[in-house]
Fructose-bisphosphate aldolase
Amino acid sequence: MPDLSQNISVRILKAAEAGHYGVPGVVCYNMEAILACRKAAEAKQSPCQILLFPWAQDYAWDHLVNLASDVCRSARVPMSLHMDHAQSEAAIKRAVQTDKFDSIMVDMSHYEKPENLARTAELVRYCHARGIATEAEPGRINGGEAGLKHTGDLESILTTPEEALQFIDTGIDFLAPAIGNIHGAYNGVENIQLDFPRLKAIREASRGKVALVMHGTNEFTADIFRQCVAEGMTRLNVNQVVLWKYEQYAAEHAGRVPLTEFLETGTALIQERIEWMMDAVGSTGKAGDVKI
């Protein structure tokens, strides 16, 4: 078994688990979001992870990857770069070949469980041999986001503790359980129905073996984030939660203000929301917990 104890993504999430707080994993599509992650992390003295979808390489070759990696490496607080929802062997190997990612989500959840497990195990070995930490999704989290294929035509499958252990046996470092969370819109906080007893059982089964990661947080309130952390989530992936003010500003001001002002204000609005997130999940002031 490769020793990934010095992997920065592993160290960030192990520290969060030990300290009983969460860390934002921010889905980034552009320069403004990537820069906002570092600005927020340094302002709040918080660890942070930048998340890119394979779309980033489809769209911009390795240029966004290189920017995000440089931001993580040059930050004065612990930051790491994670490829989220890599849903094919080709996407995973392309990400690995950049030599920039600290961790990769091996997302084979669109396959039935036996094939999901087999493909995950093979690709985890491939990533680990190159020093890259891995994440997988037992069950299936439905929905879609910009840059992420919608799985609405597939059945949502909630994770059981037994399935969590089967995926842990593949060697993964992080586990993203399906507990009623979905990608994309819930269309109202009242429609967010998370099975916390299920999460507690998964946490007990996986304790000390993997870190738990929360997907599908659009429309989450601070209280919901805090409850997820209290039940053991260590990284909480965010998309619209931190981007909505920026998108609203863009809709109203694109082409109407100088481009420099547009970029600076847009970055600041994303930073503001990431800082809110850091307060909500308890990572503010925790940068010193991670030894770099």
